[in-house]
């Protein structure tokens, strides 16, 4: 079955964008090094990406204004605006959790939750994220758009992998199942 994977970068203090909504701080210690090491492997395992309208707009205007950055993926943009869809870029007003449930019934590779924070938190609240792949960037922003909102729901996770390069720490967790939980004494 397809997995839903949150693959996202955040500052050491938990922000995915600065106070102006910008992400130009997303780099390791040496700006000349390749910081896409785990992304290049990750992207081969997905064929679908889900994001909010703000993330889509940022990708189109700031990150990759000349061409769509994910041409091989089917992109679902969760929006309240009516926009014309294409074969690979689909605008929808559908609830992201309902969309994920539908996509998981279809054949394909894993499903990437790209952002933003509102979409991530809606999906997390519904316990619909199977894997959390978080790149912790060696930057303290102090303020901005926080990845995880305050919630009363506790999520137990199991660490699958940890890797560091260029000051960035990649953390990969999976939702803990009853069979994977244990008591620490």
UniProtKB/TrEMBL annotation:
State a single Gene Ontology molecular function. Answer: 5-amino-6-(5-phosphoribosylamino)uracil reductase activity
Q: Which InterPro entries match?
A: DHFR-like_dom_sf (IPR024072), RibDG_C (IPR002734), Riboflavin_Biosynth_HTPR (IPR050765)
The protein's name in its UniProt record: Dihydrofolate reductase
Gene3D superfamilies assigned to the protein according to its UniProt record, in alphabetical order: Dihydrofolate Reductase, subunit A
A GO biological-process term: riboflavin biosynthetic process
Per the UniProt record, the source organism is Longicatena caecimuris
Pinpoint the Bacterial bifunctional deaminase-reductase C-terminal domain residues.
3-165
**Domain of life of the organism in this record?**
Bacteria
